[in-house]
Amino acid sequence: KAHLNMALQDATARSWFDVSAECVYNEMSFYGNKQIKRPDRVLIDKDKNVIVIDYKFCQKTDQNIRKYSSQVTQYVNLFHQIGYKNVSGFVWYLGDDINYKPEIIRL
Questions:
Q1: What is the mean pLDDT, run by run of 10 residues, along the chain of 107 residues?
Q2: Which of 89, 65, 67 is nearest to 77 (CA)?
Q3: Are 32 and 75 in contact (CB under 8 A)?
Q4: DSSP per residue, 34-74
Q5: Pick from 13, 8, 82: which is nearest to 51 by CA?
Q6: Contact 36, 30 (CB under 8 A)
């Protein structure tokens, strides 16, 4: 619980759990190229602005940044392909232990 409270101290992260979003999807699935793509959280507001968030319970390393930024970029591109114009993607590193300070990478 303490780790979650620390993670939600960030105003950006807190806004992702604000009930003002018109549509909130958890584990929205895309099917294509025989693969299923599932972002962890997708918010779509009344103006059709989309926020894609993927949670990572690992350390933020250069290798992880490349890997997970590419993954979230794919999600963002999928939303563009289905007609959404304003799409933002985020990787939220929550770490792998209680002492890790959560970090957000905006793509």
A1: 77 81 59 73 88 90 93 92 94 82 85
A2: 89
A3: no
A4: TEEE--SEEEE-TT--EEEEEEE-S---HHHHHHHHHHHHH
A5: 13
A6: yes
